[in-house]
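hey m, so remember when u said the tokens were messed up on ur end? i reran from scratch. heres the input so u can diff it against urs
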Amino acid sequence: MADSASESDSSSVDGGMLIPSSPASREQFQKRIESLQQENRVLKMELDTYRLRVKSLQEENKALRQASVNIQAKAEQEEEFISNTLLKQIKTLKKEKETLALNYEQEEECLTNDLSRKLNQLRQEKVQLEQTLEQEQEALVNKLMRKIEKLEAETLGKQSNLEQLRREKVELENTLEQEQEALVNRLWKRMDKLEAEKRMLQEKLDQPVSAPPSPRDINNGDLAANLTMHVQHLRNEVAKLKTQLLNAQQE
């Protein structure tokens, strides 16, 4: 298209311009034509260069388009592969999740059953222990109550015995005191009488001739010995009663 345009331009120049009549003008005109032709050739060479470049760019563009198509196809393949791989992994994970959930449910059910069984067993053992403890406590309470009742009865018996012993002690002390007082009175009277008899005997001894002892004097000596023995017997009885009283108080 550039060649035809340049040729048409040159022909139009040649045909449209009037050839000058003078030699100088013709020479100048000829130079002008040569210059235009030279410029036309340069433009033609540039046009060819541009054509080659456009063709190269078109081929490069085609190659790029093909590469883009190839890359897109490869990307689609890789995307499909990745998608399939991810789907497989998702399915695998889903199966593993279902398996884990099932195992967890089974283990949880087994653990729940085991714990329920142990809880029931512990409750039964607790009930048995409570019953056993209640029975033992009841038996112990009954035993303690019987022992307490026995001790109370023994205590009451001992208190009764102690009260009786105290009363007997008081009675014995009163009786002993009365007997001692009566005995002392009798002894004092007897001592006074013996002193009087002694003085009388002394007076008789002071006489020149002593008379033989009368039976009354012999009886008086026996009476003193009997009184002494009776007093000693009463003292022994009092000591014995005091010992029994002390033993009863200690019990």
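this time it looks ok to me. Residues 1-17, 209-218 have pLDDT under 50 and may be disordered. if urs says something different then somethings off w ur setup not the seq
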